[in-house]
Known about the structure:
Layout: H1 14-19, H2 25-33, H3 38-50, E1 55-61, E2 70-81, E3 86-98, E4 103-114, E5 133-147, E6 150-167, E7 171-174, E8 177-180, E9 183-190
Antiparallel strand pairs: 1-2, 2-3, 3-4, 4-5, 5-6, 6-9, 7-8
Amino acid sequence: AAGELEGVAPEPDLARLFATNAPDLEAVKIFVDRVPQQEAFDRAVQAHLAGTHHSAAGFLELEWRPLAGTLLLPSLRVEHFSRTGQLSLSPRVSLRQSITPELTLKGGVGHFVQEPEFLDMDVVVGNPDLGLKQALHYSAGLEYRPLPHVTLDVTAFYKTLWDQVSRTEALIERDGALQPANLDNGGRGRV
């Protein structure tokens, strides 16, 4: 057929492939054989299965009612991540203010962290020196309770992101030689 390379199987029709209960196994094999970085993915999975990785955490929360109908919840999450070797302190606070017995105004802000994905820390396609991804989450909303067992809730969310994993062309020295860093924690964004 026009547009096909000689000796190269055509790309499978993925919509057809996954739209049936019994996909064409040859088409699945063609697709899987072409998954980029499959060897790096396999290496990352093996490293994950071979090692012990953990995130030990503690959470402290204070419930404070400074005024009638007001609930303030300051909190702190302390977490250690074994793959990055980092300790994170994540302060958070939420506020609930009753407007009427049925209507409550609520809001919160908090710092959140997450380790990079296993493949992102692979020595060949990723960067084993990556740090934690960080974000500041904001939320605000209203809760309406017309009946004791019925609650209607509307909440808006916003996030400021930094130290996100992103591609880089930078070179770094590892094991006495210059190598591509592939990834760094230079990504920023908003959601």
